[in-house]
Amino acid sequence: MRGQITEPKTTAAAPPVRGVKLPEFRQLQQLPREAGLGKAAGFDRAGNGADNLQALNGRCFISHLTFFAMKKRLTLVVLLVLVAILGSFFLARGRYFAASGNPSASGYQVGDQVTDFKLKNVDGQLVTLADNGDARGYIVVFTCNTCPFAQAYEDRIVALHQQYAPQGYPVVAINPNNPWLSPGDSYGSMQKRARVKNYPFPYLVDATQDVARRFGATRTPQVYVLQRAGSAIQVAYIGAIDNNSEDAKAATTKYVEQALADLMAGKAVATNFTKAVGCTIK
Length: 282
Known about the structure:
Helices cover 38% and strands 14% of the residues. It is of the alpha+beta class. It is built from seven helices and nine strands; from the N terminus they run H-H-H-E-E-E-H-E-H-E-H-E-E-E-H-E. Strands 2-1-5-4-3-7-8 form a seven-stranded mixed β-sheet, covered by helices on one side. A two-stranded antiparallel ribbon has the order 6-9. Strand 4 (171-175), helix 5 (187-197) and strand 5 (203-205) form a beta-alpha-beta unit. It has helices at residues 22-29, 37-41, 50-100, 148-164, 187-197, 210-215, 255-264; strands at 119-121, 126-127, 137-142, 171-175, 203-205, 219-220, 222-229, 232-239, 279-280.
């Protein structure tokens, strides 16, 4: 009808395809048809391009799948690397244990002859029993840094050395603990402990536990009083330092001191074996 305004017809835009964002969809719609890109891109005359967008959506889906597949492969690679590292760690531990073993209850008995050993001291020097040719015997103590019993006896061990080393029976302390199981007993920790406590005796590391196994030591602290007999060195006493692991002043029987008193008097040790009270060797 004349005078009636008719609104121009417009072509409705195709709805966006699932998975394609609206801005991306409109950008595809606005590709310049003058350059013939509409046909190349698969657009119809209305510029809908639905088939092309479905293809694009499929490519996006494939890209997402590829990304997740790569992510899973990367995760698998990381897990395999971790497994390899942990496997190497436990293999090293297994080899260490196979080489060293663990100390056992079988070992020297009273009267047995002791084979000399060579162990590294906290000062880096190697120590043997033969180094001290003037010694009449030794107070060999298997001890460590970390055991509460060893810590409780620490001052008493120092006192034994100060009292009996001038009489020919010095203390030789040996740490047999495995640092894999007891990191506080590493060689560096031993050096620090000896320095802080000002040990007047050698503090040796039994890295393979061979010496502890040979002696039969199973606890820290555990004492072996040795007596020189000509060119041989024999075991004269095995066991605890005294009968009170908590309070030195409350100890009523001092086994090591009694054993040394008997030896220096030229007598057989009356009480030559007691049960060592302490932590198991790690």
